[in-house]
Write a structure and sequence with these properties.
The chain is an alpha+beta fold and about 180 residues long. Strands 1-2-3-4-5 form a five-stranded mixed β-sheet, with helices on both faces. β1 and β2 form a beta hairpin. The protein is globular and about 60 Å long.
Length: about 180
């Protein structure tokens, strides 16, 4: 709907005004890979990697309402840090979630109307001490997949594009290659 399109425009303008001067991107959607000694490698793409060595993950969905220290987001940022370390040999200088905060109003029609409120950056200081626990989590998940407890997404399923096991030779779906 036009209303949400306008909210998107406002969100982009607000992001630009809030972060343009403080983020100097080296790469957007930087691909990194974590090789795991005989285990399935982890292929990931970080939303923004800066020239100064920062990693920023953008959260734009209206459903993201929790704090940035929730387990899934810590796992994601630590995984990006491991990938960054594997690629560059150093720990990122900063890891953060930049989340869009949405609000809603209840107009007389009694249907919620969502609007962009603001962007919030929440940094999580990550060092190498986090790496073993997160890598063990991936080993556990991989073992569960191999034992058919969790199954990778089926080829051509909408979830397939988000499956970290989508690598050549493991399933029939080829890795998406950005041109």
């Amino acid at each position: 709907p036009e209303y949400l399109t306008e909210q998107g425009r406002l969100a982009v303008a607000d992001f630009y005004n809030s972060f343009y001067d403080s983020i100097d991107p080296l790469s957007l959607e930087m691909e990194m890979q974590i090789d795991r000694n005989g285990h399935v490698p982890i292929i990931l793409r970080a939303d923004i990697v800066t020239k100064e060595g920062g990693i920023y993950d953008l959260k734009t969905g209206r459903g993201f309402s929790g704090s940035a220290d929730e387990g899934d987001y810590i796992t994601q940022l630590v995984t990006y840090s491991i990938g960054y370390y594997a690629k560059f040999g150093v720990i990122p200088t900063e890891t953060a979630i930049i989340k869009e905060k949405w609000g809603w109003k209840m107009p007389p029609a009694k249907k919620r109307k969502y609007y962009h409120k603001e962007w919030e950056k929440v940094s999580l200081p990550i060092d190498e001490s986090w790496f073993p626990d997160i890598l063990n989590t991936y080993d556990t998940v991989e073992m569960a997949i191999k034992n058919n407890i969790y199954l990778p997404a089926k080829d051509n399923d909408p979830l397939c594009r988000n499956c970290t096991y989508r690598i050549q030779g493991y399933c029939n779906q080829k890795v998406l290659i950005k041109e």
